[in-house]
Amino acid sequence: MPAARESLLDAAYTALARRAWSAVRMVDVAAAAGVSRQTLYNEFGSKHGLARALVRREADAYLAGVDRALAAHTDARDRLVAAVEWTAAAARGNALVRAMLTGCWAERLPAPGLAAVPSTSAVPAQRRADGPLPSPADFVALVRDRAVAALAVPGAETAEVTRSCELVVRLGLSCVVASPTEGGAAELVRAALGPARRHGL
């Protein structure tokens, strides 16, 4: 029931934007999605299961945005700048993404825990959500590896490209925690990559 699942996740996200997760009621989420409460429980099992699925969906959407940013340009530096700008914008506009990237979960957010939980769900998407959720360190590695794959600079030292990409990812996370000043993330990334010209970036 993918359509109902997405509607329920949309309703949960909207509810979270209006009130603390502790005040979000399953019956209200089901009503907002236009489905029965039983359908909600069939999909997610519990409020905790709903929280994990919501976090998983936002993590996947953030990473899909990284992929789009990296594919939007042909110049390697422009690709990395776009990924950093997307990271800063996604965290600014989505409290769950910000919490996942920084590991700082505000009291009003769900705190689903990163470890896998036992799952008896018949729903494949829920079994995935019940698996381990990415930590901030996982996101560094995931985004770095996507950047390395997207750049695939001919003749460049893979280790040097990997280091440069990780530097840029960590710089992007610093922009999430403290917004950059004049010139923004683009100027910071370009300045950080200055010495990397010999590696093809």
What does this structure look like?
With 201 residues, this protein is mainly α. It has a domain at 59-116 and 133-199. 67% of the residues lie in helices and 0% in strands. It has ten helices and no strands. It has helices spanning 2-18, 26-33, 37-44, 47-71, 76-93, 95-102, 124-129, 136-151, 158-177, 184-192. Helix 8 packs across helix 9 (158-177). The longest helix has 25 residues, at 47-71. The radius of gyration is 19 Å and the shape is elongated. The mean pLDDT is 90.
Number of beta-strand segments: 0
Strand pairing plus helix content: what structural class?
A: mainly alpha
The biggest sheet, with number of strands, parallel, antiparallel or mixed sense and barrel status, is: none
Distance between the termini: 45 Å
This entry's quaternary arrangement is single chain
- Portion of residues in helices? 55-70%
The Rg value, from CA coordinates, equals 19 Å
The SSE order reads HHHHHHHHHH
Strand content: under 5%
Determine the number of helices (DSSP H or I, runs of at least 4 residues).
10
What's the overall geometry? elongated
Kindly state the mean pLDDT as a whole number?
90
Low-confidence stretches: none
Strand and helix layout:
Elements lengths: L1 H17 L7 H8 L3 H8 L2 H25 L4 H18 L1 H8 L21 H6 L6 H16 L6 H20 L6 H9 L9
Helix pairs in contact: 1-2, 3-4, 4-5, 4-8, 5-6, 5-9, 5-10, 8-9, 9-10
